[in-house]
Amino acid sequence: MHNITDELYQNIKDQMTEKEFKDQIKNIQSKYDDLIDEEVAGFLILDKNNRNKESITKIKDLEPGMECTLCCRVLHIGDIRKFNRKNGNFGRVVNLQVADDTDECNLVLWNKDVGVVENNSIVTGSNIKIINGYIKSGYNGTEINVGRWSLLEFDDIVVKDIKNGSKKDITGELLEIQPTRPFFRDNGDFGFVTNIKIKTNSELKTITVWDKKVKELQNFKIGDNIRIESFDIKKNNENVEIHLNGKGSIKKC
Predict the structure, then answer these.
(1) CATH 1.25.40.20 fits 59-163, yes or no
(2) CA–CA separation, 73 vs 11, rounded Å?
């Protein structure tokens, strides 16, 4: 009787012998301290060789708690930040904005994975594949995290017809700028947030503004006509929230 490993091998038998396939499975299990089974290791080999027939998840279908594989393009790369861990050591994190043909979201890289940004293996415009990424609800909306059991590929990845989020904007009169509020993120980093209100032609909109964009508000005053571009939409229960972060812009009309 054939087991799942034998079935997986059928998808790649033209590239390697069965012995080579099973040896690679053992090597991967050893790399992960035998915490993953043969099936997971087999799927990782298929992913690496573009032979995984499992479906690719679209960004519009992401939900917190999911673990999935998706292909996307990098639209924006934030600054690499350091933070203190509870054990006294330093960690590193970088946030990227990515998109496919359905939507945009955030991608978070931690510690050693930050190196692919630092050494320019991934730059703005790069196509990447995230294998076994886990989905969380972050302060800027839905985010993909690359963790210990995830893989990041960026060679020969094809992403077609990405969604262009730069066309969405809000234009209107700046009515209110609330006081700035400092906060600590879960990773120990320090940030700033505030809310502004804009009167458009049809309604009053409240927008949450984060970090560097909070500082940019010093260039505006009540009564200015402004345009907000490339913002994020976050659903919180039945409410829809508008967030302006590093990839967005605020301009005078």
Answers:
(1) no
(2) 27
pLDDT surpassing 50 at residue 96: yes
DSSP state of 75: E
- CATH homologous superfamily of 166-252 equals Nucleic acid-binding proteins (2.40.50.140)
C-alpha span between 172 and 178 (Å, rounded): 17
- Those residues whose C-beta lies under 8 Å from the C-beta of residue 198, and which sit 6 or more positions away, are 170, 172, 173, 174, 175, 204, 205, 207, 226, 228
> Are the C-beta atoms of 135 and 144 separated by less than 8 Å?
yes
> Which pLDDT band holds residue 166 (cuts at 50, 70, 90)?
very low
Residue-range domain boundaries for the chain: 4-48, 59-163, 166-252
Which residue's structure tokens are 């302060």? Answer: 139
- Nearest to residue 222, comparing CAs of 175, 159, 167? 175
Q: Which helix (H) or strand (E) holds 26?
A: helix 18-31
> How far apart are alpha carbons 174 and 181 in whole angstroms?
19
Is the per-residue pLDDT at 20 higher than 90?
yes
> pTM here?
0.55
Closest CA to 117 of 145, 76, 170, 156: 76
